[in-house]
Amino acid sequence: MSQIYRAVAIDGPAASGKSTVAKRLAESLGLVMVNSGAMYRAVTWQVLQEGIDPENRAAVLEAMSRMRIDCGVKNNLSTIAINDRLLTIEIRSAGVNEHVSKVASIPEVRESLVAMQRDYLGEYDVVMEGRDIGSVVFPDTPFKLYISASEEVRAARRAKEGESDEVAKRDAQDSNRKASPLKVADGSIVIDSSDLTIDGTVEAAREALIKLGWKD
Ligand code: DC
Questions:
Q1: What is the CATH number of the domain that holds 60?
Q2: Residue 117 CA to chain centroid, in angstroms?
Q3: Residue 216 lies in a domain
Q4: pLDDT tens digits for range 43-82
Q5: pTM for the structure as a whole
Q6: Residue 186 Cα to ligand 1 middle (Å)
């Protein structure tokens, strides 16, 4: 009989703290942490590298059809490489921040990346963070969290990280697009991290998972 793997889905807007929570949960629960946003960022980075207009859907899809995208795992964290180049810090650039929502709004881009996201569950127990993990990628998992924070708090967090990122604009684009918009998936527990420390948010997430039936 093939093994059944478990998925924890964490969704939320930019800079809500979901990556940190996902990483900490992965460490304490022995899961692989998958950053799905990194996949949209990697495709966007490659598109920009090739000098393609991210608004030109046909050109983006043509470029994507030529990309060899490798999703892996290292030290229990997801990795992403395009055409054998492992992408890390470069996908956090201001240019990628500015254009990623456009690329992520293309249904065919999403379809390809969602398939790669689901493949992780064939091999690992995962905690995956993104925008549509509970609603589209793993709608059947009982373990769904939605982490939010006020717009001011999120903008301040990005500024502290030294990143130029118009989170409000990106969130508006991610929430208003037709294909798999950011929303609170049915069955999610919502955690507002605005007034919580990192430890407090992780603790709230752990308690929420137990409420949802998580057993070690
Ligand atoms: O999580 P992040 O901020 O690194 O994600 C970057 C962008 O990727 C985000 O603005 C929208 C897109 N994204 C998405 O559409 N769906 C996901 N599951 C994850 C990210």
A1: 3.40.50.300
A2: 10
A3: no
A4: 999 999 999 999 999 999 999 999 999 999 999 999 999 9
A5: 0.95
A6: 19
